[in-house]
Amino acid sequence: MTHTAEYPGKQTKTSPATQTPAFAALSAKTPIEPFQIERRAPRPNDVAIDILYCGVCHSDIHQARDEWGGSIFPMVPGHEIVGRVSSVGTAVRKFKAGDLAGVGCMVDSCRVCENCKDGEEQYCTNPHATLTYNSRDKNGEVTYGGYSTSIVVDENYVLHISDKLDLAATAPLLCAGITTYSPLRHWNVGKGKKLGVMGLGGLGHMGLKFGHAFGAHVVQFTTSQSKIADAKKLGADEVVISTDAAQMASHAGTFDFILDTISAPHDVAGYLNLLKRDGVLCMVGAPDEPLSVPVFSLLGRRASLAGSGIGGIAETQEMLDFCAEHGIVSDIEMIPIQQINEAYARMLRNDVKYRFVIDTNSLKSGAVQG
Amino acid sequence: MTHTAEYPGKQTKTSPATQTPAFAALSAKTPIEPFQIERRAPRPNDVAIDILYCGVCHSDIHQARDEWGGSIFPMVPGHEIVGRVSSVGTAVRKFKAGDLAGVGCMVDSCRVCENCKDGEEQYCTNPHATLTYNSRDKNGEVTYGGYSTSIVVDENYVLHISDKLDLAATAPLLCAGITTYSPLRHWNVGKGKKLGVMGLGGLGHMGLKFGHAFGAHVVQFTTSQSKIADAKKLGADEVVISTDAAQMASHAGTFDFILDTISAPHDVAGYLNLLKRDGVLCMVGAPDEPLSVPVFSLLGRRASLAGSGIGGIAETQEMLDFCAEHGIVSDIEMIPIQQINEAYARMLRNDVKYRFVIDTNSLKSGAVQG
Questions:
Q1: Does A299 touch chain B (CB under 8 A)?
Q2: ipTM of the complex as predicted
Q3: How far is B130 from B284, CA to CA, in rounded Å?
Q4: What is the pLDDT of residue A365?
Q5: In the 8-state DSSP scheme, what is residue B306?
Q6: Omega into B354 within 30° of 0, i.e. cis?
Q7: What's phi and psi for B356, nearest 5 deg?
Q8: Residue A4 clears pLDDT 70, i.e. is over it
Q9: Does the CB of B290 have a partner CB in chain A at under 8 Å?
Q10: Which of B58, B72, B96, B204 gets the most CB atoms within 10 Å of its CB?
């Protein structure tokens, strides 16, 4: 077990920072490549985690390529992290060495703003939560994500992971899972409700699983006949071919909630017309171009176009516990880190069912092979 | 009192249709001009009303000029109608001759769909409510609005009007009033909430009055220094000059609800960033171009862009009763019908405080002067 500092935030000689193998984007225009980072020695409230698996999120690509602006390079992406605790700081009460642990999209927040107090740390306004990568912490240090062998995180932003579930398939729950779970819970999508899911990727397939588990009548929208069988296997009660105007029209005014997981620019107008009174179309994908919204589609049914970002720490734990209880994980394809650039290319072609997960053993044994 | 038909929907010889002076748009490209219409003889459930005043709504212009498409010509606009009951059908229980009465944006709906049953007839889905003008009723007859001397409407779509209030200034409550009252009530905008109002016209000034009456902290957005004093007089606690980036930034993340009453194409992105977590920006104006909505503004605070259309009949009565109790009416400028085209031109220049109301006496005495 690592010795920890006597004074919060101060590193001692007995707990030096750790050189850690990672993969990073050195610029917006270069591929992800081997890189060495330093992880801080655990402070009293810190948990040090040996990373076992890290999911690959579409936002990794957006940020590594600076498509949202403001990216910080070098960047070590990855915010769907599952691992095992290697050591804890002196003040840590929630974890001990050997525990399974997860880290999602954020590693800290102000803890005093209204949103933090409400357990909605993802909406921290002071000025915003410290994200797991491509962010700066309270000390101004750049954060590095899960494309690496270890990470050190304040215990309050670390999740407990059940040993009942496949660990690699659990990793994507930390972002894709909570991002779809949270809005379905917030808007009470369950029995007696009709839920639509737009997009059948990392987020979409989790939306199907949760919607089904919550008892909603779940409709998958897709442009592709080839996805019908898969969507039904994942929990869809119906599949609508969204390019078929007659099929779309037959569902007009019937949806309580539509979860839009599409992160490429796309049209939402046709879907707004499928909402019933007080229906909500909620964006969880993040297209980098503004949406075009015809106002009459909202006025005519008191509809809302909403957005939702991940979920709070307590809700993320609730989601993980729900998944453990109901046997819900992501459908994944495991890759060694050396295939990350190929994985990005395949994700952009929607050629993955449904989430790539990095086996970080590949990083430990040969990071320089990349 | 008019004799009514023995059989519902059937007119008898003793109650002929009535020739009624009106003003109409004969095409999208011609001014509003004198026109003669026929009002049906009252059926058993009908109330015949002598129109005293009719407010002039921005949507009158949109529809008279076919800017939303699908306009039916000749068109007699007007859906902010206050008058006095001249006769009632045999089955009418809620009104009697001599009563004050109001008619708003709709004169019928299916009465059996989920929305009608819920008292939200404005969202009738079977296929939609019969609007007061520019619509077709269940028999396929075109409806004609309040730019006329009388109207015949089923009693279930007629409102009681208090004699406590100025009648001309009450007319705009039937559309501008309920359109702003309903979303503020639906989203519980009251004490402890911060409300923003975009636009200071017919709708906006009613939003200020209701927001103030409900106890919210009310902020008017305007581009014009000259409107500050007026907005404060109408109920604004603060006025923000929306073109002043520093002023806007100082309100970032603080609004529970923003009521957007602007019916011209405009930018909403800057306002979405002023919402706090779970905040709602609600459109009640109806720009004829789609809005451009940056998704991150929604995701970062679980915000919603919503729309709301008028209100149900019961809620409209509730609003009218609230106004009578609290002494709330519209600020108006009265005009004879012969000035309607000039009024339209002035509305398009925002040159009215804050609603034109037609005195239909002008129509009775000299419709052909137009």
A1: yes
A2: 0.92
A3: 19
A4: 63
A5: E
A6: yes
A7: -80, 140
A8: no
A9: yes
A10: B204
For tokens 């592709």, the residue is A224
**Residue in B closest to A123 by C-alpha:** B301
Q: What share of chain B is helix, strand, coil (3-state, %, to 5)?
A: 30, 30, 45
Q: Which residue has 């979405």 as its token pair?
A: B272
Helix (H, G, I), strand (E, B) or coil at B364: helix
Q: Do A298 and B305 touch (CB under 8 A)?
A: yes
The mean per-residue pLDDT over the stretch B323-335 comes to 98
Q: What are the chain A neighbours of B304 within 8 Å (beta carbons)? A: 280, 304-306
Q: Residue A63 CB: number of other CB atoms within 10 A? A: 25
In chain B, domain spans: 3-175+331-364, 176-307
Neighbours of B81 (CB within 10 A): 33
Q: B3-175+331-364 architecture in CATH? A: Alpha-Beta Complex (3.90)
Q: Do B298 and A307 touch (CB under 8 A)?
A: yes
Chain B environment of A295 (Cβ under 8 Å): 283, 285-287, 290-291, 307
Closest CA to A74 of A41, A30, A107, A124: A30
* B45-65 pLDDT per residue, tens: 999 999 999 999 999 999 999
Candidates B123, B182, B276: best to mutate against A (most CBs of A within 10 A) is B123
Q: Do B3-175+331-364 and B176-307 have matching folds?
A: no
ω before A354 within 30° of 0 (cis)? yes
Whether B188 contacts chain A with CB within 8 A: no
Distance CA B68, CA B263 (A): 12
Token couple for B41 = 């003889």
B206 touches B177 (CB < 8 A): yes
Nearest residue in chain B measured CA to CA from A294? B290
- Calculate the CA B23 to chain-centre distance: 19
Q: What is the Cα–Cα distance from B320 to B308, expressed in whole angstroms?
A: 18
The third-level CATH classification (topology) of the domain covering B176-307 is Rossmann fold (3.40.50)
Distance from CA of B27 to the nearest CA of A (A): 23
Calculate how close chain B gets to A68, using CA atoms only, in Å.
10
* B 125-144: CB under 8 A from A: 125
Whether chain B has a CB inside 8 Å of the CB on A31: the answer is no
Q: Which pairs from A16-20 meet CB under 8 Å and 24+ separation?
A: A16/A41, A17/A41, A18/A150, A20/A148, A20/A149, A20/A150
Query: CA A108, A114, A119, A124 torsion: positive or negative?
Result: negative
Would you say A79 and A117 are in contact if contact means Cβ atoms under 8 Å apart?
A: no
Length, in residues, of chain B: 370
Q: Are strands A275-283 and A238-241 parallel, antiparallel or unpaired?
A: unpaired
| Cα distance between residue A236 and residue A222, in whole Å | 12
- CB neighbour class for A369 (10 Å; exposed up to 12, middle 13-18, buried from 19): exposed
d(CA B26, CA B72): 9
CA pair distance B332, A72, nearest whole angstrom:
56
Could you tell me the pLDDT band of residue A264, with boundaries at 50, 70 and 90? confident
DSSP string, B181-219: HHHHHHTT--TT-EEEEE--SHHHHHHHHHHHHTT-EEE
Closest CA to B31 of B333, B343, B359, B332: B343
Contacts of B290 in chain A (CB under 8 A): 269, 292-295
pTM value is 0.93
> Which residues in chain A are closer than 8 Å to B294, comparing Cβ atoms?
290-291
- B288/B277 Cα distance (integer angstroms): 29
Length of chain A: 370
Q: Please give the structure tokens belonging to residue A241.
A: 């071919």
User: Given an 8 Å threshold on Cβ–Cβ distance, is A302 in contact with B123?
Assistant: yes
